[in-house]
Every structure is written in C-alpha cells, then in structure tokens.
Automatic annotation (TrEMBL):
The keyword Transmembrane does not apply. Its EC number is 5.1.1.-. Binds 1 Mg(2+) ion per subunit. Keywords: Isomerase, Magnesium, Metal-binding. Residues 130-224 form the Mandelate racemase/muconate lactonizing enzyme C-terminal domain. Gene3D superfamilies: Enolase-like C-terminal domain, Enolase-like, N-terminal domain. Mg(2+) binds at D177, E203, D226. This is Dipeptide epimerase. The active site is at K151, K248. Its cofactor is Mg(2+). InterPro entries: DgoD-like, Dipeptide_epimerase, Enolase-like_C_sf, Enolase-like_N, Enolase_C-like, Mandelate_racemase_C, Mandelate_racemase_N_dom. One of its GO terms (molecular function) is metal ion binding. Pfam families: MR_MLE_C, MR_MLE_N. It comes from Kaustia mangrovi.
C-alpha cells in the first residue's frame, strides 16, 4: 500500500523578483511524496496565480486523488484523471521518481535517453530600471553566465532596457520575456530594438488569447509561446503565430505530457525551449530530461533563491550539471 504526503514549502528569494504582473520575495511550492515498498518518490510543483491556482487549491486537487494514488494509480492513468497543471505535475514527477527508485533505473533511462549532459541555462534578470538591469547583467557576465533572459513587458522603457543590458554585457547572448505585456502596435519598434541588440528569442510578447497579430507581422527574431502554450491540446493553435514553444512542467502537468508535447512540437517545426517557475532543484530535475533536446534552456530557478534544498543541482556559471540521484530520478 502506498502512502501519499503533501506539503507546502516556502523558499525565500535572494532578492525581490519582478515581472510585468508583479513582484515576489519567496517561492511557494508544493511537494508531493509517494512511498511504496520502502522507496519514496518526490515531485515539486508551483501553484501559479496567472492560471487561477493557489497553494491551497493545488493541495486540495492532490488530496482529492489520494485514494487512487495510494491504491496504485500510474502515470498513464493520471493523465486522464486530472487536468494539466501544477497539481498533476507534482504527482507525475513523484511517480517518475518512485519508478526510478523501485526499478533501479534512472529516470532519463525510463524516458528513453542514453544519459544526461550538462546544459547551459539562462540567468534571468528581474524587471527593473534600465540602469539597474544593466548593472545586474554586468555582474552576471562577470560570473560566467553567458545567456541572459530579460524580464520586460512595461508600457515604456523596454527598448532602453534591452540596449542597456547589451551595452553592459556585450558578450552575453540574450532572450527576452514580455510576459504578455506588449501591445500589437508596439511590436515593430520593439522587435527592431531587440534585433539591434542581438536578441535571439522573444517570449510571449502579446497576451495569450489576444495574439492573432503575430500571424501578420514579420518575425525578425523567433517568437516563443509561453502563457499561450500548456499541453498538447493548445499546440495546434500556436502554429503560424509562434516559432518556438516554452515547455514548462507546471503547465503540461508533468514530465509525461511534456515529453509528448516536445515530440509533437518538433513535428510541427517549432523550436523547443524548456522553462520553469521560480522553485528549487527538485522542480528543475525532471526538466533536465526535456532540456537535452532544447535550443534554449531556462532552468535557473535555484539561482534566484537565497538557498536551495539539500542535494541540489550544481551550477557553474551558466552550466547546469545533471541532478544527483539523491535529489530525484
């Protein structure tokens, strides 16, 4: 008989982190543990207010499935018993970890890979005044972080932010994330400003659900769906508007759906990106399996924390090493 444990954890951030929708000072996560035959699988998920989730609602979703989980619910059945989202992600990743521990095979092997390689992850700069973001970029460049992601999405000043960061950290590659904060009539000028600074990818410039303008405008830089992309059911609507997709396990509802989404997105010619919510290494570890096939990796959550959990992933500058087996998988 299995035993399910659900816990809320709060992890302070190193500094206040701001995006177009607001600021936060901590990462609020839900940890799922499933114990069976002396082995325990763990999964971490992040309730996200943008999608109507709270810590309480996510914990209640998981609790509602307790009987089935403790009676042996497997990953395949889980996909039909719960909608994509944070709650399913926590359970799905715990089941992957449990299967790895019980079988003695790493999760990457269960996913059909030959191993995990270290990857280069972005380092995210909080939305601030241009001079503050420039200073943060220069510090990140000096710390050996070669790929920076700029949080943007304000009524004005984003072109200046991009230019300031590029000038302060000229050797760094850049991606930007507007978090749905731009308007269609701003796109030509903002796309041009990004192109001038060598930006390689622009995430979610327009609000999900109000992004049809992306079909008509030229894309001098690859445009990536984030808030508009969740699971397989949302994929076909992206084609023709976006060039890339940001796969996040808290949106797909776990690694199982993320793997299927990655396959389907590549079949449609979309560039793959793996992203994360602000959280600990336990959230990042399953994403490393998807990261092996992605052009852009954004798994820097632990770098934004005041401290990470025990047995956390090792980062050397922008290099992210495979998660230790003691953490997950």
């Amino acid at each position: 008989m299995r035993k399910l444990t659900i816990a809320h954890e709060s992890w302070p951030l190193a500094t206040t982190f701001t995006i177009s929708r607001g600021s936060k000072t901590s990462a609020e996560v839900v940890v799922v543990a499933i114990e069976e035959d002396g082995r325990t699988g763990h999964g971490e998920c992040v309730p996200y207010p943008r999608y109507g989730q709270t810590v309480e609602s996510v914990m209640a979703e998981i609790e509602a499935l307790r009987g089935e989980i403790e009676s042996g619910l497997d990953r395949a059945a889980l996909q039909t018993r719960m909608e994509a989202g944070a709650a399913r992600n926590g359970i799905d990743c715990a089941l992957w970890d449990l299967e790895a521990k019980r079988s003695g095979r790493p999760a990457w092997a269960l996913a059909g890979l030959d191993g995990l390689d270290a990857v280069t992850t972005v380092y995210t700069l909080s939305l601030e005044a241009p001079e503050a973001m420039a200073a943060a970029a220069a510090k990140a460049e000096a710390a050996g972080r070669p790929l920076l992601k700029l949080k943007l999405g304000t009524e004005g000043g984003d072109a200046e932010r991009v230019a300031a960061v590029h000038e302060a950290a000229p050797t760094c590659r850049l991606v930007v994330d507007a978090n749905e904060g731009w308007k269609a009539d701003q796109l030509p000028d903002l796309f041009a400003a990004c192109a001038s600074a060598g930006v390689e990818l622009i995430e979610q410039p327009l609000p999900a659900g109000d992004d049809e303008a992306l079909r008509a405008i030229e894309h001098p830089i690859a445009v990536c769906a984030d808030e508009a992309a969740h699971d397989l059911s949302t994929l076909d609507a992206l084609v023709g508007k976006y060039d890339a997709i940001n796969i996040k396990l808290d949106k797909t509802g776990g690694l199982t759906e993320a793997l299927a989404l990655a396959d389907a997105a590549q079949e449609r010619g979309l560039i793959l990106m793996i992203g994360c919510m602000t959280s600990t290494s336990l959230s990042m570890a399953p994403g490393q399996i998807i990261a092996q096939r992605c052009k852009v990796v954004d798994l820097d959550g632990p770098l934004l924390l005041a401290r990470d959990r025990e047995n956390g992933i090792r980062y050397d500058g922008g290099t992210m090493h495979p998660a230790p087996a003691a953490l997950w998988g």
